[in-house]
Amino acid sequence: MASHAASRTAERVAGREIIVVQDTSELILGGRRAKANGYGPVGKGGGTRGLLLHAALALDAGTDALLGLVDAQVWNRDKGKVTPRRSRATTDKESQRWLSATVQASAALSTAQSITVISDRESDIYEHFARRPANVELLVRANWNRKIKLKSGAFAKQFAFVDGLPEAARFSVTIPAAPGRKERIAELALRFSPIMPCRPHPGPAPDLPDMIRLTMVDVREVSSTHDGEPIHWRLLTTHVVRSPKQARRIVDLYRRRWTIEEFFRTLKSAGFDIEEADIGEPEVMIKFVAAATVATVTIMQLVRARDGTTEEELTEAFEPDDQPVLEALSSQLEGATAKQKNPHPKGTLAFAAWVIARLGGWTAYYGKPGPKVMRLGLEAFRRIKYGTTLRLKNV
To answer: Most CB contacts within 10 A, which of 14, 49, 161, 200?
Structure first.
């Protein structure tokens, strides 16, 4: 299912600047009962059981349009104790998922004009940078304070080095509201420099180069008036950065990583309640998670397109033979008032979003349809489409 979805995404990326956001999330499915059913440990302490899902999504760097799924890996930690992590090759660790998703993006999105894979601190792995495919750039939030080689030939720690750089620029951004956090305007200070991190020693991959060339972009909040922790991102990238404008673009690209958090929220609570699924067999649950992952991406595409501002075509999320079914449904679902008419052009994703929302119970009068409405509508649409394929004979 994930492979088919990735092939559909590949059809949409030709000639476009693509960013790929990837991350991992734990799916907590229970305690003792889940353990008895064969689910492995997740969460802190190992008292809860479940699965892990690693997903990668493709977005258009220019329009922010969600183009589809690139990769999805679901697994169960059902094995016993393993050898210490430092003595194992990356291919034998769960951290291989970051490298595998990057390789998948390279292959599946090869017709894109450019590919930038974005991920959080857990993916700050030397081998991730050293073995990146030639057609992929990386943007990672730094986790390790590595040793770097300076132009003078001396060595230093990368965090202290960047902290000592003069500010290159300041700019303001709007930090959107979130649970427990009000919207605010933040003033950010920008620093950047090329760096040469050294290969970790000891390490399980002695064939890696002794040093790699990266750029660090440091951005930190300098005018915080709120009670929470101020923003401070140290970003490592393979992109060449020569100006404050280019460094600012790196920061803006990293902010797109939030899309993968939105994806997991939709999967777990906003659209599906996947952790409430009462499936006792891990292998069956893995297949269900894969199917829900594909559906969640479509739901997000519909929610984003509902206002008609993205100008995406229907084929960004649907098959070409879905269009006549959607158009027939639209004419049936429209009411007598202006608000109950589909306002979007045929062939657009916004047109489809209106139909799916109406099938999901939206009246077209109050509020905007969210993920749960879109999920219900998408399920109804698929049943209707299946019905159109039946050829019943008299019996």
So the answer is: 49
